[in-house]
Design a protein that fits this description.
The chain has helices at residues 3-26, 48-71, 75-93, 115-137, 144-168, 178-201. With 203 residues, the chain is mainly alpha-helical. The protein is built from six helices and no strands. 68% of the residues lie in helices and 0% in strands.
């Protein structure tokens, strides 16, 4: 597989993942995008669609990491993108626990997490941290604009993920906005990956 194809996978992963979860959320009657996490779309009868979405995005990102390993400016950065990809794959294999009252009839927060739910959270966290770190690793550049954008993306991605986590833990101030904050965070992260792929493709 050519390097350009490998890098193009990194450019496609984010937009495809985003379009998929937006369509899935719009089709769920009791699902509230502003409140509920993207991972909750993997629950219920139609949950298979979000599982596939996680796995496909993870596979595309893993292929992208292979391309970065071959041609990118940083082997460490490629490794971090690979860890981010594994986190996405893990999020697909291990489904999240119900949270924030979805699916209907479940509590806002389970008294105890299940093993599967805990693995989902752990692998997702590792993936998020790896992507945030990758923003900083790929920041050094001859372009001050790219350096600033990468650092800002890493900071904002981390900050919004922390807020989203607080919301899903039912902190009163943020609980009703957890889904929205998480979507902002994902958009920051995926946009950065897409632009990184475009940047390397055109160098």
């Amino acid at each position: 597989m050519g390097n350009q194809v490998l890098l193009a996978c990194g450019m496609a992963a984010g937009p495809l993942f985003t379009i998929a979860y937006l369509l899935e959320g719009a089709g769920r009657v009791d699902y509230k995008p502003f409140r509920h996490p993207v991972s909750s779309l993997a629950l219920g009868r139609a949950g298979w669609a979000q599982v596939i979405n996680f796995l496909f995005a993870g596979l595309l990102s893993l292929i992208f990491a292979m391309g970065l390993w071959r041609v990118g400016p940083s082997r460490w950065g490629a490794l971090l993108i690979g860890i981010w990809a594994v986190g996405l794959l893990g999020a697909g294999v291990f489904r999240t626990d119900p949270v924030s009252g979805y699916p209907p009839g479940t509590p806002h927060q389970l008294p105890r997490r299940t093993l599967v739910g805990a693995l989902h959270d752990l692998l997702s966290l590792i993936g998020f941290l790896a992507l945030a770190a990758a923003c900083f690793v790929f920041a050094p550049s001859n372009s001050p604009g790219w350096a600033f954008y990468s650092i800002a993306s890493g900071v904002l991605f981390t900050a919004t993920m922390v807020l989203a986590d607080a919301a899903f833990k039912q902190r009163q101030r943020w609980a009703d906005l957890g889904g929205l904050i998480q979507r902002v965070s994902l958009t920051i992260g995926w946009t950065w990956q897409t632009l990184l792929a475009m940047r390397i493709l055109h160098t």
